[in-house]
Design goal:
Length: 68
């Protein structure tokens, strides 16, 4: 999933940037936008989860804290 814009919230706080490609969330591969939304919706509030992105051709792990 290509990140086109990052608004205020957990994604920005985790360091997500425009142009990043989200590859996995909480160690689950992201295969499309609908599946990404489903993964995020089911995350446990208050938990920090790993997010793997591809940034400028290199993999980068971010820690995303799910809002309570």
């Amino acid at each position: 999933v290509l990140v086109r814009d990052v608004q205020e919230g957990p994604g920005r706080e985790a360091g997500l940037m425009r142009g990043d490609v989200i590859l996995s969330v909480d160690n689950q591969e992201v295969t499309g936008v609908d599946q990404f939304r489903s993964l995020v919706k089911d995350l446990e509030p208050g938990k920090a989860v790993p997010v793997l992105v591809q940034r400028r051709g290199a993999p980068v792990f971010l820690a995303l804290r799910v809002p309570e």
